[in-house]
Design brief:
The structure is a homodimer.
Chain A: H1 6-9, H2 31-37, H3 74-77, H4 83-87, E1 97-98, E2 113-118, H5 126-132, E3 134-139, H6 152-155, H7 165-178, E4 186-191, H8 194-205, E5 211-215, H9 220-226, E6 232-236, E7 238-239, E8 242-243, H10 245-253, H11 257-260, E9 267-270, H12 284-296, E10 300-304, H13 329-335, E11 349-354, E12 366-371, H14 372-383, H15 391-435, E13 441-442, E14 451-456, H16 470-483, E15 486-487, E16 489-490, E17 506-510, H17 516-534
Parallel strand pairs in A: 5-6, 5-9, 9-10, 10-11
Antiparallel strand pairs in A: 2-3, 4-12, 7-8, 11-12, 13-14, 14-17, 16-17
Family (chains A, B): Belongs to the class-I pyridoxal-phosphate-dependent aminotransferase family.
Cofactor (chains A, B): pyridoxal 5'-phosphate
EC number (chains A, B): 2.6.1.57
């Protein structure tokens, strides 16, 4: 591999790679070496940056993404680059004195130092952190003093919509290491959380009156983001593995513009891993099939992936212990179901990434991976809205993930999280097996995520004969459970199409926040509720 | 004053106050006493909260705001409360075990402690902070351990769109102490920065095709937020005191729906203090006049106020020293020009507040003050977009502003900032007086903000006779300045209506980020540019 330079960085323009020797793909071990060879980290205030600064040369040997101009909304199409940010180009001139931009001077930021205490792998528990944890210091002028590539002087000032290059590098490398998208010009941008990214996506890719495709049961907030924009849901039938591709194909093939009063939908919102609320995880084959249908009908896939690293150990059944953790990082990565991004030869996937379930929701920092064209439109929007995610959050994440853990330590953390969530899920499944009446309650062990989806056979409910509807029965059971001091979520809250009449009835339980004892007691209370209500 | 209770909190419903003894208004000294009497701070994960928990009883003796349903967009009108957040009501039942919401457990937040080093009043400089600064500790379980009202367990988890009650209390009290809005049901909500608040405001109050009113020169990014939404600017004529109310009245009185192809505008975006780019500050009388015109034409005033506390000492002229700082907090507050919010008897003002210019732009935390009806619509939007500002930022701001400084220490900081910006502005003005050719360069000393607006008499430019336009001349001067290694902003970048032909030509200089020496050198270079270009 020849030493990268400004010329390599420009390789993204190269589509005929026959004359170029094909560089090795980036590896975990290769990251430090690659970092040394690449262009210098920009460490000024709000420096322009992009993933192109951080991707390895192997990326640019691939073909470029398709153009998706036809997906852009009127709003997205008419958004121009920021005038004032464009003027920043002159700041690169050596010796330039600027009275141009209104950036406050760092002497007016009243925080001189920020320290965090964090775990050191492999001691991830709060107890281990007390003993072996590290204190990460961040001073105001660490960059000038040669102590760090990122500091408070920069983090406390305005930043770019792409995020700070220091953290953008980490997520770009992470993306290449885990997903290695099969086209050349993919990029990342940080976002102020993935809920915000989803709201922005709707404004970029839809117009009032459009339909968007969603799993028939979906994350209620994601749906509630869409409705006030005048959007309607085309609810896609699902099974234990999520979206049924044949059903999606049929719905799109038979789309009747006149009858529907809307153009054929081209935005698919999906939570492929540990879906909320059903807990379903699409297998690799399922994803390939959904991707093929998306190619056939020219669909943009927005994969919302907060639970990707909450893929758990296989469920070993009642009373059995979970299999041992992945022996190596490679085993761990191989155990993960491949993302849509990893099979995205066209550049039609927008991957919404989140630290909320694996580090901290309160950071309000996530990121997006998509083609350069699409990322650019997101960034133009962020510039005049969120501006950039919190610099304080970015600094904390950078110190923890990049300076302290590195990619390898982050994987250790994610493996520990996997084992921990496996225990939690198993506790819930064991409680269900122990308490719930099997003649009316059915479930599939979730392979990922935070949610367990319990079907309750409403047709056996005593009031059915007297004409009670599924809706009424669901409400009666829910309120009776509340009377028994246990709160589950009603399945109907998650209907993508609120007017749809569903055949089955579900309740959603989470194992994310309660302890094993609490889970057992809560499920026992729910079982009592069901027995009472069903007269069992 | 009777001890406040849940009943007092409900006083906001009372409009006939004849039977109620009128309570004293909140004072800086009264804050601790009032806090002791009021309802307990909610310290759980993502607790519901509102400013009503923190306003003093004096607020509720005032009449309620008008309703502004007719200002709401289709999007704003159709947004409902979040289903899942509504379900949280059952969590209040004692003994409830929840398997409902998918909130991660705090043991999975890998930050056990966060410490910041900050200045202690009156030692605000970095040097003083090194000597007398305080280290503020934040542990994961400070709340349970009785050490603080806010901690990492809460800050690192999801929060409410209103922001954490801990910080919401501070901004609510600050708002009452400084602005004391003259109607009862005002509220605050935190936001992920005021640029984001402005983007959201446009989506709440406008439809594609509408005009919005802006100062004829305005913050370029604010305008660029609006254009892709299909909005047009009605550029309001300005003088040294900003918006000319008579001109605004005339434009609205003569609005011709047919000729304009749009309904009469009802959203006014204004930066009343230290306006960007002109540096103009509207006097109290000017604001009263603009408010009256807004009442007459039923206009919603969005006051964007990042520079409110960058009101400086009066300019004493060349060579003279600045007057001494305000002797007391009361003197300081009296020296501030009253906000639109403080004169808003109708509840027609939406005040966008920011910590960016007075604490740190990188926090990406700001807040909005408006009537309960309007705040509720903002919050509904935030819930499905930003969710909440960074919890890490909120924690840092709370520790600094509330626990360490308190309202009184924050005022000390703001006074120090005032004196410091006065010095910076004076350095710029002295440099202008020293270097700039007075026959072609004219300016007014800015009373607030970060910006100095320099008029250059383009009609005296050598190329005018040969037919060079103002635009071309502005560009030639700008590029020539770049060649002389000094960057100013071109006035035309800030035109609210990009198609407007302006009579005058301006350059904007900031004194926010450069040192006095740099400012002197930069203005000297600009003077050289002007002399060369004008052949002086």
């Amino acid at each position: 591999m020849s030493p990268p330079s400004a010329v390599d960085i420009e390789m993204k323009g190269v589509t005929d790679t026959s004359a170029v020797s094909i560089p090795d793909p980036l590896t975990f071990k290769g990251v430090p070496g690659w970092r040394e060879k690449m262009a210098k980290m920009p460490t000024g205030v709000a420096p322009a940056c992009s993933s192109d600064m951080f991707k390895s040369p192997a990326c640019y040997t691939k073909p470029k993404a398709k153009r998706f101009d036809h997906f852009l909304s009127l709003e997205a199409k008419s958004r121009k680059a920021s005038t004032l940010k464009t003027a920043a180009q002159y700041l690169r001139n050596p010796g330039m004195l600027s009275l141009g931009g209104g950036l406050p001077s760092s002497e007016y930021f009243p925080i001189e130092q920020l320290d965090i205490k964090v775990p050191t792998p492999p001691g991830f528990t709060p107890e281990a952190t007390r003993e072996s944890g590290a204190i990460l210091h961040s001073g105001k002028h660490d960059i000038k003093e040669g102590k760090s590539l990122y500091d408070l002087e920069i983090a406390l000032n305005y930043g770019q919509a792409t995020g700070a290059p220091q953290l953008l590098r980490f997520v770009t490398e992470h993306t290449e290491l885990i997903h290695n998208p099969p086209y050349a010009d993919w990029q990342c941008t940080l976002t102020a959380g993935s809920t915000y990214a989803w709201d922005t996506a709707l404004r970029l890719f839809t117009e009032r009156g459009d339909y968007i495709m969603m799993e028939e049961y979906t994350f209620a907030s994601a749906a509630e983001t869409a409705w006030p924009l005048g959007l309607k849901a085309l609810a896609l039938p699902i099974d234990e593995e999520g979206i049924v591709p044949e059903a999606m194909d049929e719905l799109l093939s038979n789309w009747d513009v006149k009858a529907r009063g809307a153009r054929k939908p081209y935005v698919l919102y999906t939570i492929p891993t540990g879906q909320n609320p059903t807990g379903a995880t699409q297998s690799a084959e399922r994803r390939q099939a959904v991707y093929k249908v998306s190619q056939k009908h020219d669909v943009l896939i927005i994969e919302d992936e907060p639970y990707y690293f909450l893929q758990m150990q296989p469920y070993s059944g009642e009373g059995a212990a979970a299999p041992p953790p992945p022996a190596t990082h490679d085993d761990f990565i191989k155990s993960l179901v491949p993302s849509f991004l990893s099979m995205d030869v066209d550049g039609r996937v927008v991957r919404l990434e989140s630290f909320s379930k694996v580090v901290s929701p309160g950071s309000r920092v996530g990121w997006i991976v998509a083609s350069e064209q699409i990322i650019e439109r997101f960034v133009r929007n962020f510039e005049v809205s969120s501006q950039n995610p919190s610099g304080i959050s970015q600094l904390v994440l950078y110190k923890l993930l990049d300076e302290h853990w590195g990619h390898s330590g982050y994987l250790d953390w994610l493996i520990a999280l996997r084992m921990s969530y496996t225990d939690r899920r198993d506790a819930l499944l064991h409680a269900c097996e122990k308490h719930l009446p099997r003649d009316i309650a059915h479930w599939v062990a979730p392979a990922a995520g935070m949610f367990h989806w319990i079907e309750v056979d409403w047709r056996k409910y005593p009031g059915v004969a007297a004409g009670k509807t599924r809706e009424v029965i669901e409400e009666e059971i829910f309120l009776s459970a509340v009377d028994h001091s246990v709160l589950l979520s009603r399945g109907s809250w998650f209907k993508a199409d609120s007017s749809a009449i569903m055949e089955k009835m579900f309740f959603r339980a989470t194992y994310a926040s309660a302890s094993s004892d609490q889970i057992d007691e809560a499920i026992s209370r729910f079982a009592t509720t069901l027995r009472e209500q069903f007269g069992l």
